[in-house]
Design brief:
alpha+beta; N-terminal domain of TfIIb; Nucleoside Triphosphate Pyrophosphohydrolase; 7-stranded mixed sheet; binds zinc ion
Length: 184
């Protein structure tokens, strides 16, 4: 029988019952307690496939140009209408820095060079790990794209703190501002 800890984990798994069928053979999945991991997983009784539910990895960049940073106003849910730095999910087969550069171009039309890792932002309840970079614009012209209704360069004292899209947006920009201040 599962102990208290395992029961807690089972409840977490129950929230993830949306995974109904085995992606490998199409059989319905069921909950099975995995002894080695001391927790329940969604498992295929037919082929043994374990459906691991992990956070998705997202990559973002804060593109700096002439002392200002480019932010975009999202045109899609979640947080449509709010500001964020460009970013998105890392594709399988792509490395994280490449994804940050690609997403920045797709959302801003700007070509960037990544200068350094800013930080990694991870929250237990959100299911996303955001890896954010400090970047410098090296080409392109800022333009709107289907995912973003507006793009604007903000001074570090002009960031729209009350209209930011996600907790990671706020935390990353706060750390960015602090980092830039420490350079002076
Ligand atoms: Zn299967």
């Amino acid at each position: 029988m599962p102990d208290g800890d395992a029961k807690r984990l089972l409840q977490q798994a129950a929230a993830a019952k949306w995974a109904k069928f085995c992606p490998r053979c199409g059989n319905p999945l069921s909950d099975r307690f995995i002894d080695e991991e001391r927790q329940y997983r969604r498992v295929c009784p037919n082929c043994g496939f374990i459906f691991y539910l992990n956070p998705k990895v997202a990559a973002g960049a804060i593109p700096q140009q002439d002392g200002k940073i480019w932010l975009v106003r999202r045109n899609i849910e979640p947080s449509s209408g709010c500001w964020t730095f460009p970013g998105g999910y890392v594709d399988l087969g792509e490395c994280v820095p490449d994804a940050a550069v690609r997403e920045t171009y797709e959302e801003t039309m700007l070509r960037v060079r990544l200068d350094r890792l800013l930080n990694v932002y991870s929250y237990g309840q959100s299911g996303i790990v955001m890896i954010a970079y400090c970047a410098t614009v090296i080409g392109g012209t800022a333009g709107i794209t289907p995912e973003c209704r507006e793009i604007q360069a903000f001074g570090l004292d002009e960031i729209p703190w009350n209209d930011l899209a996600f907790p990671s947006t706020r935390e990353a920009l706060a750390e960015y501002v602090k980092l830039e201040a420490s350079k002076k």
